[in-house]
Amino acid sequence: MHTLVTFLVSLFLTLGLIGPLKAAELVLVERHGCHWCERWIAEIGPAYPKTPEGARAPLRRVQINALPDDISFDSRPVFTPTFVLVEQGKELGRIEGYAGDEFFWFLLTQLLDAHPDATKAP
Q1: N or C: which end of the chain has fewer CB within 10 A?
Q2: CA 20 to each of CA 10, 14, 17, 43, 48: distance values in angstroms, whole numbers, following the listed order
Q3: pLDDT surpassing 80 at residue 86
Q4: Phi first, then psi: what are they for 19, rounded to 5°?
Q5: What is the pLDDT of residues 59-85, one digit of tens each?
Q6: Please, are residues 64 and 96 in contact by the beta-carbon 8 Å criterion?
Q7: Residue 85 · residue 111 · CB < 8 Å
């Protein structure tokens, strides 16, 4: 039975009858001219998609003054950068600010591990 389900999902994905199953994403809320946003982008940005964390929650960048309608934030982000873990358009948690790479990775790991069902590695 499991093999049949796997086959059908693969077939439907291949034919474009259903979209890919969407897991969590990490939304970077940033602002033009934000020093800490620029620092995160320089220090973490290029490596992020290549990391296990990036596989668990791919990055999406948005501007604080143009927040997307497809995300329901628990509260409107005020500080930049703010990193919001989102699944199916709903906020699961967030990290406000950037205090360096080691602190970021520590907080991100805690955030992802707090939501294992949403952030399973593919």
Answers
A1: N
A2: 10, 10, 10, 30, 21
A3: yes
A4: -80, 170
A5: 999 999 999 999 999 999 999 999 999
A6: no
A7: yes
Q: Six-digit token pair at 16?
A: 């474009």
- Bridge-based pairing of strands 25-30 and 59-63 is parallel
The number of C-alpha atoms within 13 Å of 85 and in the hemisphere containing its C-beta is 23
| Long-range contact set of residues 40-48: C-beta below 8 Å, sequence gap at least 24 | 40/81, 40/98, 40/104, 43/100, 43/101, 44/101, 44/104
Distance separating alpha carbons of residues 121 and 99, to the nearest angstrom = 26
- DSSP for 33-79 reads T-HHHHHHHHHTTTTGGGSHHHHHS-EEEEETTS--TT-B-SS---S
Rounded to the nearest integer, the mean pLDDT of the chain is: 87
Rg of the chain over Cα atoms, rounded to whole angstroms, equals 16
Residue 24: C-alpha distances to residues 57, 66, 84, 93, 111 (Å):
5, 21, 10, 11, 12
For β-strands 59-63 and 82-87, DSSP reports them as: unpaired
**8 Å CB contact between 62 and 81:** no
